[in-house]
Amino acid sequence: MGQTSIGVDIVAAIAWHLRVGSAWRALPAGFPPWRTVYGCSGAGSRRACSRS
Length: 52
Description:
Elements: H1 3-20, H2 34-41
Helix pairs in contact: 1-2
């Protein structure tokens, strides 16, 4: 899996969370680990998830 597909998966997981309104830990299988998604969402930290 390349960096692009990981980024797309994270965005898809954040969109799923916002649409469903479920807990971060309830992310379905197939998404990245919930801690990764939570950290990149902005809810987990002030710093955005980026690759510079």
